[in-house]
Each structure stands twice: as C-alpha cells, then as structure tokens.
C-alpha cells in the first residue's frame, strides 16, 4: 500500500516538473523572438546587459525614412518654421517644434546676458544633404580645404573621408532630424576669440540646462572617430538621443544609397564611426 502511494506522489511530481520547464522555455522563446525577429532587434539583445538591464527596442512610431531624412520638413506635422528674426532674415529654416521651443527659451536667457544666438542652419533633409555632398564629390563645390576633390582625390574612399571631415553622407546627418542647429558661424576660429568666444563660453556653461549638447566635441581618445570639432553645432537631446539610439539599432551601411559615392559607406563604416562617433555626453 505504501509503495503505491509513493509511486503516485512521485508521478505527480514528475508531471509538475515536466509542465514547469516548457512554460519557462516558452516564455524565454517569446522574449527572444520579440527582439530577434529582425537583424536590428538582435543587435538590441546583444547590446543589453546580462545583469538584467531592460532591452531597448525599436520604436515603430519612428520611421526609417524619418531617421534617414527622406521626408519634407515643410509638410511634416512635427516641424515649425523658424522666425526670420532668429535666422539672419532667412525664411527657409525649419526645426522640430520641441527643439524650437527650447531654443527660444535659451535665446531669451542668452539675450539677457548680451548674447544674440542666430540659427544659420537647421533641418536639412536627404535631398538638401545630397546637394551638399555631391557638390563636394564632383568638385562643383570646393571642399573646406579649397580643393576640387574630383581632381585632387580620385580614390572614392579617400574622397569620401575628406568630405566626412565636415559634411555628412545623405541618410546619416543629425540635421535630418530637426533636433540640430548651427549657431552664429561655421568656423571654430570665430568661437576662439572676441564675441565668438563669449558666445561659446555662454553655450558651454548654459546650453545643457535647456537640453542642448555639442555633439562634435574635440577628437581625442574618447572620441577618436566622427566629424571634426564643430563649436557651432548644437543638438536638442530630449529628441536627438532617442533618434540616435534608433539609428544605432536600425541603420546599416548597406542602406545608405542614392547619391554619388554612397558605395564607400560600407568601406568606411559610416554608421558606427560617424553617426555614433559623437561626444559621449550627447549619447
């Protein structure tokens, strides 16, 4: 009689254990499937901490076309025109509404201290960036070094690397997002003395309190890759950080196409070295 009861209990235990394990396995498989159904989501899983850090997932409310600048800002509901009085009289400057509102607050605070911030460049979509890139690629627009790169640099990869010192490949520019702006001047020399230095010192001391960060800081051991330093370029982090992360997860060098020299993106590793090669304080 005792032997029968022991067998019955042991059988129940075996059944319970056999049920528990598949449930746990199915749960794990569901978790893995949710992040590994695409190449991008697999990258998210690999990037997550093994200590239980929540996985960062693709935000499906943000389209890949948006990240790559393949839209028209003047017709986008999230964008607003910059008043000409903040843009040296230009009427063709557009920003994300959140970025513009933060800029207006920063502008007002700076004005009280005798600093007049001017937006020289704001959103540039794929088409606008393509115009800049191909101008330098073909030599119809001189490089910052005053070179005609079509003549001085016949090797495609080397030519692209020269352009990338200061200009983004179409599909990879932060200016696509409506979060980034160029202020007051386009040379570091301007910000090294006089009025320019005063402006830069104010920005480095105060811009962060309004959500802005300088993505292209001096290149050093912490930032060995990416564009040269740009003291004029400031990014609105509450939006830009999310978009940077989505670009990391979803953009691939093979997706960069549609302009002259695009084939060099894979050789250079543009996504890793340039989109992500920014000031760590802005990540």
Mind explaining what this structure looks like?
The structure is a single chain. Helix 1 crosses helix 2. This protein has 283 residues and is α+β, with helices and mostly antiparallel strands. The strands form two sheets. The protein has a four-stranded antiparallel β-sheet. A two-stranded antiparallel sheet has the order 1-2. The chain folds into two domains: 2-37; 64-282, 2-Layer Sandwich (Muramoyl-pentapeptide Carboxypeptidase, domain 2), CATH 3.30.1380.10. The chain has helices at 2-36, 39-47, 64-67, 97-111, 126-138, 149-152, 156-163, 194-206, 237-250, 264-268, 270-275; strands at 79-81, 94-96, 119-121, 180-183, 212-213, 233-236.
